[in-house]
Amino acid sequence: MSSKIGYSSGPFTVDEIGFIQIAPVKVLVAAAKGEIDLNRIVREELASRGLGLNGEWVGFEKARRTHLEAYLMTRPDGKKVRVTIPEDE
Hints:
By secondary structure, this protein is mainly α. It has helices spanning 14-17, 25-32, 38-49, 60-72. It is globular and about 40 Å long. The model has no long low-confidence stretch (mean pLDDT 81).
């Protein structure tokens, strides 16, 4: 029995993640090498849309805190750091 390999074997359809096919090669290569953090980019995008961790509307400020503070609290070595993002004026 052979196992299917590739992104289409995950929980998403090819149509749902097809956007990756139009990404520039240099972005794909940088992501593969770990030179850009796709998780951080996605968290920033969710925050900019005002969406929570499950894609629900939570508002821009709560989303910003949920995604960016949570992300900044974990250092690359895995240790937690206390971070507070100042309120917008």
